[in-house]
């Protein structure tokens, strides 16, 4: 599991850097900053992740993305969130209301 988590964190770092964010890495957690927005990026499940910050992004394998999204929708979280579903060569962003947004 550690290898998969490390790979997800590396993919997340690459995605956010490509989107123009400055990224700081803290183990498997990232802090991505762009203009006024800081996004706390994690590969942990919503139950395990810290509830810090106003914006959180959960990075998961594509086959787990809908389950993580449903878990987040069912909860009451003190932050705005999104789920990034990653595969080997692509990613999609799942928001609470908008469904899936295709990566550019």
Task: Give a topology summary.
Elements: H1 2-18, E1 22-26, E2 29-34, E3 37-42, E4 55-61, H2 65-74, E5 80-86, E6 91-95, E7 99-102
Parallel strand pairs: 3-4, 4-5
Antiparallel strand pairs: 1-2, 2-3, 5-6, 6-7
Tell me what the structure shows.
The chain is of the alpha/beta class and 104 residues long. The chain has one domain (2-102). 26% of the residues lie in helices and 38% in strands. The chain has 2 helices and 7 strands. The protein has a 7-stranded mixed sheet, sandwiched between helices. A hairpin with a 4-residue loop joins strand 5 (80-86) and strand 6. It is globular.
What would a concise description of this structure say?
Helix content is 26%, strand content 38%. With 104 residues, the chain is an alpha/beta fold. The protein is globular.
**What are the segments in which pLDDT stays under 50 over at least 5 consecutive residues?**
100-104
Q: Name the beta content range.
A: 35-45%
- Give the number of domains: 1
Tally of helical runs: 2
Q: Secondary-structure element order, as H and E?
A: HEEEEHEEE
Radius of gyration: 12 Å
Major beta-sheet overview: 7 strands, mixed
Alpha-carbon distance between the two ends = 29 Å
Estimate the helix proportion, in percent. 25-40%
Number of strands: 7
Strand order within the widest beta sheet: 1-2-3-4-5-6-7
Structural classification: alpha/beta
Could you report the average pLDDT, rounded to the nearest whole number? 86
Question: What is the general shape?
Answer: globular
Chain oligomer state: single chain
């Amino acid at each position: 599991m550690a290898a998969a988590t490390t790979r997800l964190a590396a993919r997340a770092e690459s995605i956010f850097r490509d989107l123009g964010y400055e990224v700081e890495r803290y183990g498997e957690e990232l802090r991505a900053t762009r203009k006024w927005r800081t996004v706390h990026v994690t590969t942990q499940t919503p139950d395990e992740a810290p509830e810090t910050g106003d914006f959180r992004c959960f990075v998961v394998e594509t086959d787990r993305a809908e389950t993580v999204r449903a878990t987040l929708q069912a909860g009451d979280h003190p932050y705005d969130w999104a789920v990034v579903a990653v595969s080997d060569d692509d990613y999609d962003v799942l928001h609470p209301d908008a469904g899936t947004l295709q990566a550019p």
